[in-house]
Amino acid sequence: MSTQLQPVYEAAGANAIVNQNFQAVSPAGVFGMDAFSSSGLGWTYYGGRAFGNEVLPGGVTLAPSVTNYIVADRSTGVVTAATTTTNWNNTAGFMRLYSVVASSDSVFSWADYREAYGAAAAGGGMANPMTAVGDIIVGGTVTSGVAAPSRLGLGTANQVLKVNSGGTALEYGTLAGTGDVVGPASSTDNTLPRFDGTGGKTLQASGVVISDADAMSGYKGSVNRQTGTTYTLQASDTGKIVELANASAITLTLPNDLPIGFTCTLVQDGAGQVAVTAADGASIKNRQSHTKLAGNGAMAGLYVSTNGSGTAAAYRFCGDTST
After folding, report:
1. 202 and 268, same structural domain?
2. pTM of full prediction above 0.85
3. Contact in structure between 126 and 144 (CB atoms under 8 Å)
């Protein structure tokens, strides 16, 4: 929606209405050419407020017989003219005002490049600092509470937009550690992935399958075979088959610090009978008060049901057992 200024009619006091209209739109005149004061190679402009600064009326001297590029510093509002395009093309730091072709002693032609810009603590238009496909605009240098628009160029392949390490600005970069795990080109439906190597970033397929009905298949028990006459269960034995094989009697000690849910399968694979004994603080519960495997080829299950203090593991022992 546009706002109409006061209409001007041919009558007494028309000049007052004209002046009032100009006062209403005076912010648009900041940096505007002051044609009355400009002369020869002297280019003058109107003042006002821009970029949160008060801009005083002023002027610049143009170089003869060349194109002059007049710009305003976005952080200070200072106006300068140059025959090079360094500041002209730095639209993040400077606002383009006029391109002026000068003859040997006067202005030959000029083009107005001024655009709407934001004021302090307010919205408004702004000069576009983007120069290439993929650029984005971010807040740059802050002056009087206003961040000048700044160009952030497109990153390289596989980079992401992230906050820098200081938490002060946006940047493109590669995320380290997480987010870059890769797998094979294809997979078998419902198989569980597993790491390939020790790098922590490469996955491979496994033979373990969990169906859409949550049925698991394809897994194998890990076997820990012990051939001595004594062995103490380790936390790493959970979920394993512990084979105990010796011609002489074997003592299996159950420590007091294994956690609730620890479980394993015991197998006697030899003539030496396996006797299960609890370490200090631990306990064994068997329906028949058995503490041994029944003989060569016997198999029994074992799991920790409670361990409230962390040093009082209570084991359930059941299966092919004996006294």
Report:
1. no
2. no
3. no
